[in-house]
Amino acid sequence: MSMVITLNPLLKFSAGQWNTLVNFGLALCGLAGQDCAGTNTSLLEAAPSLPSKQRKAWLRQRILELFKYVNQPPRWLQSPAWPIGDAGPLVFLGQFPVADYFHDEAAVYVFHDPAKDAFTTFVQRC
To answer: Could you report the per-residue pLDDT of 8-49, keeping only the tens digit for each?
Structure first.
């Protein structure tokens, strides 16, 4: 269910902006055939025709609306791997470190799919 795709170079955000805005909306979600906005279109296709600065602001706001979290966004140990469900990105509930279990530093990430009332967890190590 989770996917990781490369950052789309069409629009750029400064470093440190919330994991570069969740790797630019997981490269605008629909670029890998995923339905990010619940409409079978990618964010880039759904973006209105606006001047570059306004389009960037619209995309930033839309990404922040779609990638929800309870208290704070995930701190990825590797590339962002935000799970996308049938209704769009899942809600991030939290993460916890896993010390002294794996050889490397590790963290468990917990997400919720409100549409299915299901949970997704995975581990990242570095």
So the answer is: 344 444 434 444 454 445 444 444 444 444 444 567 777 788
CA 66, 75, 44: angle at the middle one, nearest 5? 30
pLDDT at 122: 93
Listed in order, strand segments (DSSP E) in the chain are 84-85, 88-89, 91-97, 106-113, 118-125
Note whether 97 and 109 are within 8 A (CB): no
Determine contact, residues 95/78, Cβ cutoff 8 Å.
Answer: no
pLDDT in tens, 89-109: 899 999 999 988 988 899 999
What's phi and psi for 76, nearest 5 deg?
-70, 140
Which residues, 6+ apart, have CB-to-CB distance to 99 below 8 Å?
none
